[in-house]
Specification:
The chain is α+β, with helices and mostly antiparallel strands. It is built from 14 helices and 14 strands. The chain has a five-stranded antiparallel β-sheet with strand order 6-5-9-8-7. A five-stranded mixed β-sheet has the order 10-11-12-14-13. A four-stranded antiparallel β-sheet has the order 1-4-3-2.
């Protein structure tokens, strides 16, 4: 038969009460001892400082200096009256002024005035101009005192000042300082007993009567559920401190720390528009720390009280990276197809000229064709050393050619291979694609001039900055449009537009770059972009 265990497991409330009581009692005992020791030490320092200051005041006073050498010791003399007044003001037990022969000019016991100091050996040390402390027995009993020399106007020593307190006064002051500490410790212990009981009851009520093991199980289950989500989860309290972040959120933002305030940029991007309101947002696209996210936010409310906010995140950066790379590859393939078709036509022309024995024409035709190719694509292949960007620009060249737009890439353009990372190529495709498309639209809307677009890409090795200029000879941009052109959904081209320049601005801001728009004379527009490559925030530009 199995024995029933007699071991009784304490409840959480009982454990809390016992632990708090033990902690309070131990802490108060140790604190009282330390404070008592500190009070005694402080009291001694204060006594020492007080008698030192008093001795200095008396030794430098005009009354003492003038009367010490010109008048005889007297119980009713100026020095005695002066020292009694200082003694009452500074709460010292005695102030003794004596000349170089150690004859007293002042003393609490007027009977000894005019007599030699009772401890001449102790006082003689100050006849050499030194200040010193001592513990000796005098007329008033054991005491703690200081000896300070007195000088005349010619800085000649004319006497000594002795200031001190008796042991009785020192002990009385120390006991007066210790009594509140003892009483406070006893009161603290009583309050600790009451507080321990109240705390145990309060915690039990707040935990809904659950024991620690039950709470641990619930927390573990919640953590596993949060980390199993395919979306990132970030929750903050009303002070913007992070209270929850699952594994996906930590992968997106490795600097997240529970209990710390959320980074300003991250907070503004996720909660800036909804933190103080009560509305939720669903599937909004935001750019934060060079990551394109789909964000849904919601307030955290319990019993009608707002506790904070939470956000669900889906990372679009990786998908967008693949999509943009695919777009660049597609443009490259389309450009190759267009060139293949064009060269097939030219080969047929060469074949016909050969059959007609027009060899001089064949040579001229090939020379012109080669020159046209080098002018259009040779510079691109040599200087734009990112296959994705080069292919993308080939596609744009063909697109412009089909729309009868003269699209020129300046001969001095340069994108070195060593800086053409994948992330930079993606950003360039976004920037160039939208700026070139806008330029094509601008020149197509102006039928009075020959449509021309010029692109310049230059890398400044010294400052590690990529400079982009897209210039067109279109109709220009009005000041009203300039004021709103980088706002989402704003467009002069109708509904469901207004995203292109917003993406350009987001890329520039993510890299701490610079973007300007200038109307040219007599007409046209130039978009100027600087993309720093040194302190990039963009993912992958390491």
């Amino acid at each position: 038969m199995q024995k029933k265990s007699n071991h009784r497991k304490w409840s959480l409330r009982t454990t809390i009460i016992l632990v708090v009581l033990l902690t309070v009692a131990t802490s108060l005992s140790i604190a009282a001892l330390l404070v008592l020791h500190n009070v005694v030490q402080t009291q001694q320092r204060n006594i020492k400082q007080n008698i030192r200051s008093t001795a200095t005041i008396v030794a430098t006073s005009t009354v003492v200096r003038d009367n010490l050498t010109t008048k005889q010791p007297s119980a009713h003399g100026d020095i005695q009256r002066y020292t009694k007044r200082i003694q009452r003001a500074t709460h010292v037990d005695f102030i003794v002024v004596m000349n170089r022969r150690l004859i007293r000019y002042s003393h609490p016991d007027t009977r000894v005035i005019g007599h030699r100091f009772s401890s001449p050996k102790d006082a003689t040390k100050s006849l050499t101009g030194q200040t010193h402390f001592s513990r000796e027995t005098g007329v008033l009993g054991n005491g703690y005192r200081i000896f300070t020399p007195v000088y005349n106007a010619k800085h000649q020593q004319i006497g000594i000042v002795c200031v001190g307190l008796t042991e009785k006064s020192i002990n009385s002051e120390t006991r007066s300082a210790e009594l509140p500490i003892v009483i406070g410790s006893l009161l603290g212990l009583i309050i600790g007993i009451i507080a321990a009981w109240l705390l145990g009851t309060h915690i039990r009520r707040r935990l809904l009567g659950m024991e620690p093991q039950e709470i641990a199980t619930r927390v573990t289950e919640l953590s596993v559920i949060n980390d199993s989500m395919s979306e990132g989860l970030i929750a903050i309290d009303q002070q913007r401190r992070l209270i929850r972040a699952n594994d996906i959120a930590n992968e997106l933002f490795p600097t997240l720390t529970i209990g710390n305030p959320l980074d300003d940029d991250l907070f503004d991007a996720l909660f800036g528009q909804t933190f103080k309101g009560s509305k939720s947002t669903i599937n909004e696209s935001v750019l934060v720390q060079s990551k394109e996210l789909i964000v849904s936010t919601s307030p955290l409310i319990s019993a009608g009280k707002r506790l904070g906010s939470m956000a669900l995140l889906r990372d679009r950066s990786e998908y967008q990276l693949l999509a943009d790379q695919l777009a660049g590859t597609t443009q490259y393939i389309q450009a190759l197809r267009a060139q293949t078709h064009e060269f097939m036509n030219k080969l047929q022309a060469v074949s016909g000229l050969i059959e007609l024995h027009q060899y001089d024409e064949v040579q001229r035709f090939i020379t012109n064709t080669s020159a046209d190719y080098q002018a259009q694509f040779g510079n691109l292949n040599n200087h734009i050393q990112s296959p994705a960007v080069a292919g993308f620009l080939m596609g744009k060249l063909n697109q412009a050619h089909e729309q009868q737009v003269a699209f020129t890439i300046t001969p001095d353009s340069l994108l070195p291979k060593q800086v053409a990372s994948e992330a930079l190529s993606v950003d360039l495709i976004k920037v160039l694609g939208n700026l070139i498309d806008n330029a094509i639209d601008a020149v197509n809307n102006d039928n009075n001039v020959k449509s021309e677009i010029t692109l310049s890409i230059n890398y400044d090795d010294e400052s590690n900055i990529l400079v982009i200029e897209v210039t067109d000879n279109g109709c220009g941009i009005s000041e009203e449009v300039k004021a709103h052109m980088f706002e989402q959904h704003y467009s002069t081209k109708g509904q469901d537009r207004g995203y292109g320049l917003v993406l350009v601005k987001q890329v520039v801001d993510a890299r701490d770059g610079y973007l300007s728009v200038t109307n040219n004379q007599p007409q046209g527009t130039t978009f100027y972009v600087e993309l720093p490559l040194s302190n990039q925030k963009s993912k992958g530009d390491d």
